[in-house]
Queue: 4 jobs
Job 1
Amino acid sequence: MPNIKSAIKRVKVSKNKALQNSIRKSILRTAIKKCKTAIASNDPEAATLLKRAIETIDKAAAKNVIHKNTAARKKSKLVRAYNAAVKN
């Protein structure tokens, strides 16, 4: 444990940020998983789940939880899967 006041604060702040990031990552993974299962099972709510997943991905990228290119790749992959499922 650090002795300097600013270092003590940095430890507290970084711990809180790590917690928030893990929460956001969990929400992100859940949204993507729900979207994928809806697309695979031809659920009529797949479009709304896709929209919600894209919003969640964008929020995670805006908060620097994931990189912007990773966000773009994940969104692209979901949309491609959705379009393929709708086409068939």
Job 2
Amino acid sequence: MEALKAFIRDETLSIFRRRLADPDITEERRRMLTRLLALEEARDIRNEDNVQPEAMMRTARGE
């Protein structure tokens, strides 16, 4: 089951990055994708290092 979760996470990150690379997306969509990418990456870090979720959310929001 962990292999499936890892595959889905990697594909999700790949999709977000591909969409962010599109020069034709709106600024609103770019902000949304950037935030989603940061949250997904934070989830990976939190799972690996057991980091507090509140700290990761502040980082994702740019605080």
Job 3
Amino acid sequence: MSYPEPRYFGDEGEISAYFRPAGQAPDLTYPNGGSAGYLATGATTNGQFGLYQWNMSGARSGPDPHFHRTISESFYILTGTIRIYNGAKWVDHEPGDFVHVPEGGVHGFRNESGEPASMLLMFHPGAPREDYFEGLLTLGELSDEERKAFFAEHDNFWIEES
């Protein structure tokens, strides 16, 4: 494996760092008390990746098994216990655990502990997942056909658990 081709050709470097303070309010709050912080979106990373802090309340929440055709997804558990489906079974993960799911990998995640939990979600490349997260708020207002189109547009393909 080698380094990718250069993307910056200047001689001096530039001032271009992005900063998001720890105390910034979440970008999105769900009715169940969960929230999402858009730490680095595809727009702020030139499409290289998207990094989000996903905070789950004690209420049971999270997506059923699915896969993505265009993006990989990684999980880093910050607090609590989050159950992640690895394509064969649900496994409880604790703070410090890391899970990477390449394109096409079946996965899902849930908080079933009854306690709050938090994790980092990273998508590569940096697809506009913010639109997906925000669309979840109105998912119940969509017809079955509209819901199917929404998931296809956002590269979510649902499967039955094995």
Job 4
Amino acid sequence: MLLAITAVMAGLVLLVWSADRFVDGAAATAKHLGMPTLLIGMVIIGFGTSAPELAVSAMAASDGNPGLALGNAYGSNITNIALIIGLVALISPIAVHSQVLRKELPLLLGLSAIAGFQLLDGELTQLDGGILLAVFTAVMGWSIVQGLRGKEDPFGGETEAELVEHPMALNAALAWLAVGLVLLIASSRLLVWGAVTIAQGLGVSDLIIGLTIVAIGTSLPELASSIAAVKKNEHDLILGNILGSGIFNTLAVVGLAATIHPLTVDMEVLYRDWTLMTVLTAALMFMSLRVFSSERSISRLEGALLLLTYVGYTSYLVSTVIL
């Protein structure tokens, strides 16, 4: 058990570090190749921060641990909105300016509805996974169009500022891209082995481990980037990372896992985890888009409510293990 705990801790540290290097290298490479900054922010940074979830869920699915794969994806979405947005809003209210991000919020809610429909029969087949990946491809195409058209969007401006502040030569960018990818795969293997071993040792489901320990760990890149962004007053970058990650988790992470190995889904995933994920997405959309607010920001009070929701949800999951 001690070895498994050590493996999880080491895997999480290495996973977060390698994901950060991978995203930095990919963003810098895209910049050198002339990709528009809004597109870099939406596609590479927004989706790239979910690289840990993708690697871990794919590894878990290939090992025949569907609960860990699905719990990691949905648990990360819950963690991103309730814990990260809640914590950041508590530190400083999050103003929403980007028109592109306002379009992504209803999109993420619609994608959550599609995911829920697929869960109704208690399984995610390879066909379901293929559909999710096809929808993800369409969303990527839409993001590329938005990135090419939205040259004056505030989200693009904040991404440009980040790239200028942290310049990277092309050779270094390519090197970090390759190193980050290799270490992502290695650290995910270590983390999945440790998480499954702990679950078996404690007699709990790998779903619970995926929703808690693994979900929090794989969401650390979003947490780190969000805290760094709030210090620089880059609010659209915070929301962009969270929304990009949510779309990626719902479509690509779950889709790839189901394509690798069909996933048997307990109904509690639909009634408890998917429902909370969808309600949180709807709440975030309301907070960001409410018509009657001149500021259109996520307030400290709303951040506190999100944090309390996360604490309550996690406490309930832990109580199911203890009791």
